[in-house]
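Summary for the lay section of the report: proteins are chains of building blocks that fold into shapes. Here we show the chain for Aminoacyl-tRNA editing domain-containing protein and then a coded description of the shape we predicted for it.
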Amino acid sequence: MDVLREFFTAQDIIDFLNEQNIPFEFYQHAPAYSIDDLEALAIPHKEDIVKNLFLRDDKKRNYYLVTLPGHKKIDLKELSEKIPSRRLSFASEELLYEKLLLKKRKCDTTRGAE
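The coded shape description reads as follows.
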């Protein structure tokens, strides 16, 4: 399990994109915990910003990582009906790091080039 905690670094992703000849732009920035935090940063292409929501069902049996445009709101009740799932809510930060095998670190943003 510890091996997976080292899964991908920013450099691994950059190397992969280069090897696959996938155009991209890379921006390194201070941690941003909300869209408002990101808006305050000097990041180009702000219209392309997305947010990730880590959700769980009410029994903490199923977890979902939902990505949507930064300016969009989500109706968790509607989403739970469409998936289908039990009632959804936001998972804790601790569960996010545990379930996604993440380590706390500075934020990196990789954006696909057009």
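Put simply, here is one thing we learned. Helices lie at 10-19, 35-39, 76-82, 93-99.
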